[in-house]
Structures
1.
Amino acid sequence: MSGSPTGEVYRIDWLPGTDILHGTCHCGREHSSQDPIEMWEWMLAHPQGHQPQADQPQGTSS
């Protein structure tokens, strides 16, 4: 990662009572995983692996 700010916001929430992490990319796409490394790789690979939420059918998660 570069040291310069990009203005992009990445959010990962832990779902209490589970081992599930729920992430939201700056483009609005959401993804859930039990593996924190896989979650960050998914987020930082933007836009590979996901498109803005408006372009995806409801209920899908890549």
Note: Confidence is low (pLDDT under 50) at residues 55-60.
2.
Amino acid sequence: MTQQHTEFEFPTGVVEPEYDLWADGVDIDPTGVLAEVDPVDAAWRNKARTFILDEVKDDIHEYWDKADYPLHLIKKLGDAGLLRDGLDFEGHEPMSPMAAGLVNMELARGDGSVATIVGVQGGLALRSVMFCGSAQQKTKYGVPMLAGELAGSFALTEPTHGSDSVGLETRAHKVDGGYVINGEKKWIGNGSIGGITVTWARDDDGKVRGFLVDQESAGYTATTIKNKLSLRAIWQAHIRMENVFVPDEDVLPDSHSFKDTARVLFATRLGVAWSAVGHATACYESAVLYAKARTQFGRPLAASQIVQERLARMQSELATIQLLAVQSTKREARGELTGPQASLAKYTATRTARQIAANARDLLGGNGILTSNRVARHFADIEAIHTYEGTETVQALLMGRNITGISAFA
């Protein structure tokens, strides 16, 4: 005997809607400071935003989940002219410091790993060649790196020297026709994908010099670092160099001390601040969109007083670091930015972005831990930029030394 069941209408209220957290419509420039930039700089920003929407948006969370590197983006970024990080090249449209900052912001707003590709390739490796290289090196290495045809990495940090990178111990001994390098480096973006590694090492006189090391060189071993919880869509390497020979023509001629290394790092510090602004922007706009779309207790989350207060706080924090980044970049363009000012920008932007990301993650509830919902990726990636190119503590000590006139470094 067949038992008959009465069919009931399926409750539509249990079906979760799709949340479009990439949608336009959120005012992400509450003071209008970004709207007032030069139109040429704004065009660079729009180019970066278009790149993210066309090339990155749809599948970046899948690369992030799998800890896979979308290597094809290096060439695409080069084709779009976005690997420059403010560096000028003959025959190429100029890119001002403001344009470079806005590009960095928009790339990080899309994804932190993509922004880091530019930070490593253009900000550090290419800048080292352009600041310290010969004319021949700029042509041989700089031009293809700019085009994304040659991968570049920047090897300064060592397993035992992070914040105290000035104490690096990798050695470069002079031999006939070049140098032989021995040492290890860690957290080196692009260090295991083939290409050139700008390696900083001490020569026989103890001076810090820069060397262009071919990653195919005998004795060069690079292991991609596993189990990262941040910037998972770009690979960092642990590098070991055992008797790696570098010919004289691949030694950066204008690198003579750690001051030359620091000159490269100083030029990229504001880029980290702009990246933090980008991450914070993504988290803020995602929180606003979600709060308006998500219904709880019979009304949108956005109708709750406590939610509106938290969104107002996030907007205030975002506006603060936007204004700081713009003002710092204006000083950089005039050649007036000081080291402590750059530290202030990096320190304030990254720690504020952390606060915005944490608030956004909480506002999204359980959906906030899904990488496909943007916020979780940015929440994790901010932890990396909070640390690299000078931890919060190191930036605070640099600022403190400037404030007091007393160094607290060991």
Note: The beta strands are 152-155, 171-175, 178-189, 196-202, 208-214, 220-224, 236-247, 295-296, 299-300.
3.
Amino acid sequence: MHVLKSLPALKNVMRYSSYAMALSVCIGISASTASPNISSDGKEAPWQQVESQGKNQDVYFYAWGGDPQINAYLQWVAKQVDDKYNINLVHVKLTDTSEAVSRVLAEKSANNNDQGSVDLIWINGANFATMSENSLLLKQWANKLPNFTLTDPDNNPAVTFDFGVPTNGMEAPWGQASLTFYYDNLSVKKPPTTLKELTTWTKQNPGRFSYPKPPDFLGMSFLKYALVMLHEQHDADTGENTSAQLNMPVTEQNRAIVLDPLWAFLDDLHPTLWRRGEQFVQTGAQMRRLVDDTELSLAFSFSAPEVPAAVQRYDLPESIRSYAMSDGSLSNTHFVAIPYNASHPQAAQLVANFLMSPEAQAKKQTPSVWGDKTVLVQSTLTSEQQALFKTNKPHPSALPFDSITRTVSEPHPSWVEAIMEGWQARYGVRP
């Protein structure tokens, strides 16, 4: 029987010497992106043909490998697809998704258009935009998966748009996540529940809060949350609609209009942070350790189940409690995609379809397994399938059920680089 093989961080297994390939190397290089669901006579092949062609193969799944819970869940997935299809799922553990993007770029520049090393990739946001813009992804396959209908795509734009960019069948939705805050209730009796309250709280509790330094994903998520809230408040006060610019690409005309309020906010916030904002942690894990060491009283995560998991393994105290900001929780859907040159595209589709199955989604949503919110719409499921999602009483430190009262969408992916560049110029270099 096959078992999941985990490869080490990508930088140790690359067959190419450089990852920082400029996007321009692939522009103009043509390659076929025909869907594997299209037969040689031009007719759409039935799903049964995809199943027949996808069995008994390897699938190299390039996915972030930094969370033991997620890695264990993928072990379970591997067992299931092995039993169902005799597929050998290989988890290539990434430290950053951009590493897999660079690998596909390198293969395209070398004219490797049908024997790529990446079969499936966990992706969303700016990395998806980059791959889409450079024709690095297989098109019009995800919307043909049998389980895709369970996401109610006609009435659920969250599964057909990624950071505002249409997916065009290039991504299969896998889960949903939101920015979750947590605090030590022995030192904090009433945590801040809005961005405005947060600025007041940090002034009253100097040095007890911080955020990871960009380009860390979690640090960028906090900055995007702040940016969205600042513009919503500005629009409410003035009647203007500057928030609309967040859904548009960055231009020289709108860059300052959108980002200047963020810099003003950070100029005011930083002196109240840990080490007066003169130093920042590098990752969410380091921020979590500072909470455990009682240097910080308030922190956040983009993976709600990460908090109770850390408490249960004694990386955080039992007095930790999770909550969601009432003014809005930055949220997004994460997806899996198939590169245009995948060696085993049919097998990758079988895995992607299983990842969207009620069985796999229910297990993934279980707090003790992962706690990742399902992308399935309950009304599309049978009563037996809905029963799979019923869970036992959550851990006291877990995010309470239905505590997220309002979600806000990610800005256009081009704002990520603009925020990072501006932050580094203003706060990244200290004398």
Note: Residues 8-42 have pLDDT under 50 and may be disordered.
